[in-house]
């Protein structure tokens, strides 16, 4: 059966006769426009100059970021929020290599992305020409597919194919490498009708669904484990209807947070290394794990052999290669999530009262205490308050874009997330520097929603140049910078697992971030005491344009709970236990 | 476990490298490869590869290969032990220009076993 497609880029191009003669760069731009691409995030340079020339007369909006990594990550953020393919472009050589981290980020999180790179002319490709790198070869392990367009006559079709491949099935990044001579060669722009080869893909059938329904009915302690696939496939309604109908306990991966409203009584929180105690315990105790669009990532399972040891597994995923990759599935459902869940929702509600009560008791026993004594700012409490305030004032539209580190985990654990696409987090690659550029993309995708970056003093420096992009486009992104004067997550690991031998984690020589922000033309304020929190939040709320709230926090603060790397999720340690020991 | 993979691949730039990269990156060792045009109207090639999967699951590898855009079809078969022991690297891709790749020669193990050495055929090299 054909791969299901959630995009229709192939039929996009409709041009009235007579067909005009255009150069390759113009063909590229026109094709993107005709396929509905509204903006590209890019940075110019020698090999891609013909494309920048074509942009001068185009309707397509170009967003100039200040580093190509910023372009790729902004396109990623745009794609996650809009559900469309994010498009970024860069010149050959260093421009192309700078895109790579962003491409890998999109690959790991299955984000639809089209990365367009200029390339040296075909005649000198392979001669180590100026700014020539084999980006096609370098990116191969981190793209869904890639093209070098060597013939102007194939360009139009290739662009449409690239968009379609990026968006269809399990989405991912596609690279299109465009040599300069192809960008300047001419051809006629036409009505494109592109045929796509799609490899036959496995797809569940009725008997598989019936086996799943039976397994679910026979289970005494079933648990839904939902992942990013539910978000990518926009299966929100089906997932929510399914868990509601059966009143099923649910755990979520980092990427699916927000899919289940936090007031749903069976929601046990995030599972895994920094997951909640109820979520990890329920997974260890369940007798049936219904894995929906998740992939048994090592950050979720801890020691794989001891993960959910008593459970049979039903696994639904659009990508058959994910099923039984790490944990053998008892019932495999390769294919689209929503129809499978609708089938399971049509079954009689499960009778699992005893298990539900048990899960509720787990939840009740582990309520987080936000009352923090002392004068310092307690990051979990601050983040919770900010997320609640913005969720309320925006009617649940606020978007939170994270960087990577302790603060990322605090967001996952404590922020009120109203929809999974409102939570941008680099889950698979863990890319420090993701938060700010992704927020830029998100703000372009939803100009009216408040977009909040939560970053750390290490991460912000990875793409701090993008403050300039905020200023240039007047994007009202609000940055909450949690400054613990160190690389907190690494420091925490060194404290716990390397006998407190702290190595290269001290950042006490940080610049004054408020001054830095102001020098980019961005309003800024610093706070460091709990008594200043309300003032800080008021500053975020009342500033119209971009702004940065610099928050000094205790360098010794840690993220709890935590499952030590490579251990079973049962070995989870909580802060108080550790402090008692020390 | 040693397996034989039979793959039909569209003749596109990078297709073979993408395939071989996937096999190795996913933790399997390539032992032998041969290739011939699929024939007919299609611009495709049939490949036969011997692969040492170590402890990894060949089913998953085949699914990972199938999701490559250039792959038309992929299947795997168990390779008898005696064939696996005799396996050496021999690349017989008939169109080096198509694949644009350099394969490094590797000594086969036949000489060490007292048999006739069969030098691997290197593409472009
Ligand atoms: C590009 C990149 N380099 C290195 C790492 C490894 N790493 C993970 S978290 C972290 C520390 C992050 O520090 P900071 O942004 O200050 O956040 P904190 O943990 O203090 O909240 C590092 C270095 C990474 N994930 N990404």
Keywords:
heterodimer, A: alpha/beta, Rossmann fold, 6-stranded parallel β-sheet, disordered N terminus, disordered C terminus, B: 125 residues, alpha+beta, Alpha-Beta Plaits, 23% helix, 28% strand, globular, binds thiamine diphosphate
Task: Describe this structure as you would to a colleague.
The complex is a heterodimer of chains A (582) and B (125). Chain A has 582 residues and is an alpha/beta fold. Chain A is 36% helix and 16% strand. Chain A has 22 helices and 20 strands. With 125 residues, chain B is an alpha+beta fold. Chain B folds into two domains: 2-84, ACT domain (Alpha-Beta Plaits); 92-125, no CATH class. The longest helix of chain B is centred in the first third of the chain and has 11 residues, at 15-25. Chain B is globular, with a radius of gyration of 14 Å. Mean pLDDT of chain B is 72; it is low at 85-125. The chains are: A alpha/beta (582), B alpha+beta (125). Chain A binds chain B through residues 136-137, 140-141, 144-148, 150, 165, 169-170, 197, 199-202, 319-321, 323-325, and chain B through 10, 13-14, 17-18, 21, 25, 57, 59-60, 63-64, 66-73. The complex binds thiamine diphosphate. Thiamine diphosphate binds next to helix 16 and helix 19 of chain A.
State the end-to-end distance of chain B. 30 Å
CATH architecture of the largest domain in chain A: 3-Layer(aba) Sandwich
H/E topology pattern of chain B: EHEEHEHH
Tell me how many strands of chain B there are: 4
Number of domains of chain A: 3
What about the largest sheet of chain B? 4 strands, antiparallel
Structural class of chain A, by secondary structure, is: alpha/beta
Q: Assign the CATH superfamily of the largest domain in chain A.
A: Thiamin diphosphate (ThDP)-binding fold, Pyr/PP domains
Distance between the termini of chain A: 59 Å
Q: Structural class from helices and strands of chain B?
A: alpha+beta
Q: Point out poorly predicted stretches of chain A.
A: 1-7, 577-582
Poorly predicted tracts of residues of chain B: 85-125
The number of helices of chain A is 22
Tally of individual domains of chain B? 2
């Amino acid at each position: 059966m054909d791969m299901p497609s959630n995009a229709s880029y192939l039929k996009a191009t409709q041009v009235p006769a007579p067909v005009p003669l255009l150069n390759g760069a113009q063909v590229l731009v026109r094709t993107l426009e005709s396929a509905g691409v509204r903006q590209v995030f890019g940075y110019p340079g020698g090999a891609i100059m013909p494309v920048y020339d074509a942009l001068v007369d185009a309707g397509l909006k170009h967003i100039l970021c200040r580093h190509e990594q910023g372009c790729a990550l902004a396109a990623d953020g745009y794609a996650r929020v809009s559900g469309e393919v994010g498009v970024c472009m860069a010149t050959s050589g260093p421009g192309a290599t700078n895109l790579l981290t962003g491409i890998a980020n999109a690959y790991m999180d299955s984000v639809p992305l089209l990365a367009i790179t200029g390339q040296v002319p075909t005649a000198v490709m392979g001669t180590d020409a100026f700014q020539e790198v084999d980006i096609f070869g370098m990116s191969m392990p981190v793209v869904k597919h890639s093209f070098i367009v060597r013939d102007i006559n194939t360009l139009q079709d290739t662009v449409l194919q690239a968009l379609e491949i990026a968006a269809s099935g399990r989405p991912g990044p596609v690279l299109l490498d465009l040599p300069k001579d192809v960008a300047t060669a001419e051809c006629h722009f036409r009505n494109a009708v592109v045929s796509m080869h799609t490899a036959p893909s496995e797809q569940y059938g009725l008997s598989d669904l019936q086996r799943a329904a039976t397994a679910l009915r026979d289970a005494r302690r079933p648990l839904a484990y939902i992942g990013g696939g539910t978000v990518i496939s926009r299966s929100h309604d089906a997932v929510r209807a399914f868990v509601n109908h059966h009143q099923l306990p649910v755990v979520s991966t980092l990427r699916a947070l927000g899919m289940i409203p936090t007031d749903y009584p069976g929601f046990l929180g995030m599972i895994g290394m920094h997951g909640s105690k109820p979520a990890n315990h329920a997974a260890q105790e369940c007798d049936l794990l219904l894995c929906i669009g998740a992939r048994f990532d090592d950050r979720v399972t801890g020691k794989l052999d001891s993960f959910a040891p008593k459970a049979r597994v039903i696994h639904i995923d659009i990508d058959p290669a994910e099923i039984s990759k790490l944990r053998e599935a008892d019932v495999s459902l390769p294919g689209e999530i929503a129809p499978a869940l609708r089938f399971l929702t049509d079954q009689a509600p499960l009778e699992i009262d005893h298990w539900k009560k048990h899960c509720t008791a787990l939840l009740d026993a582990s309520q987080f205490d936000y009352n923090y004594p002392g004068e310092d700012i307690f990051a979990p409490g601050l983040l919770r308050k900010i997320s609640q305030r913005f969720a309320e004032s925006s009617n649940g539209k606020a978007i939170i874009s994270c960087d990577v580190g302790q603060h990322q985990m605090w967001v996952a654990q404590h922020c009120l997330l109203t929809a999974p696409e409102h939570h941008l987090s680099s889950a698979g690659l863990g890319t420090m520097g993701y938060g700010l550029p992704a927020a830029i993309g998100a703000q372009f995708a939803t100009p009216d929603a408040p977009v909040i970056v939560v970053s750390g003093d290490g991460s912000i420096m990875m793409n701090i140049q993008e403050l300039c992009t905020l200023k240039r486009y007047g994007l009202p992104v609000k940055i909450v910078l949690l400054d613990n004067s160190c690389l907190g997550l690494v420091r925490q690991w060194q404290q716990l697992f390397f006998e407190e031998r702290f190595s290269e984690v001290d950042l006490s020589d940080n610049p004054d971030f408020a001054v830095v922000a102001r020098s980019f033309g961005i309003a800024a304020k610093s706070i460091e005491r709990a008594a200043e929190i309300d003032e800080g939040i008021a500053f975020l709320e009342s500033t119209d344009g971009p702004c940065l709230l610099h928050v000094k926090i205790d360098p010794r603060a840690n993220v709890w709970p935590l499952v030590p790397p490579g251990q079973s999720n049962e070995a989870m340690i909580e802060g108080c236990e550790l402090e008692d020991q020390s | 476990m040693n397996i034989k993979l039979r793959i039909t691949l569209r003749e596109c730039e990078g297709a073979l490298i993408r395939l071989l990269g996937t096999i190795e990156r996913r933790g399997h060792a390539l032992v032998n490869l041969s290739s011939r045009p699929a024939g007919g109207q299609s611009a495709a090639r049939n490949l036969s590869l011997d692969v040492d999967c170590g402890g990894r699951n060949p089913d998953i590898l085949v699914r990972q290969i199938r999701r490559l855009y250039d792959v038309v079809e992929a299947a795997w078969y168990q390779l008898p032990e005696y064939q696996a022991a005799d396996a050496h690297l021999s690349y017989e891709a008939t169109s080096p220009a198509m694949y644009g790749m350099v394969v490094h020669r590797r000594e086969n193990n036949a000489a060490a076993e007292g048999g006739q050495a069969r030098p691997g055929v290197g593409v472009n090299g």
